[in-house]
Amino acid sequence: MRQALKIEDMRVRLNALVVAKKFDMQDPDVISLSRELDRLIVEFHKARQLVCIKWNIASTEVVTSSEG
Known about the structure:
This protein has helices at about 1-20, 30-65. By secondary structure, the protein is mostly helical. α1 (about 1-20) packs antiparallel against α2 (about 30-65). The protein is rod-shaped, with a radius of gyration of 19 Å. The chain starts with a helix and ends with a helix. Pfam families: SpoOE-like. This is Spo0E like sporulation regulatory protein.
């Protein structure tokens, strides 16, 4: 959840900066925020996949131990 809030905060900041700078996508601040947002999104999706994998493994272990 914390990562999702960081991503949303970064999106808001990036949008505000782009509007303030009149949509200059070559501005170093815009580029920096855009890259940081991309990095956060990738990290968020990797973490979410890891949680899903761990949850699936845990679910399988519960089923297996219930059967035994």
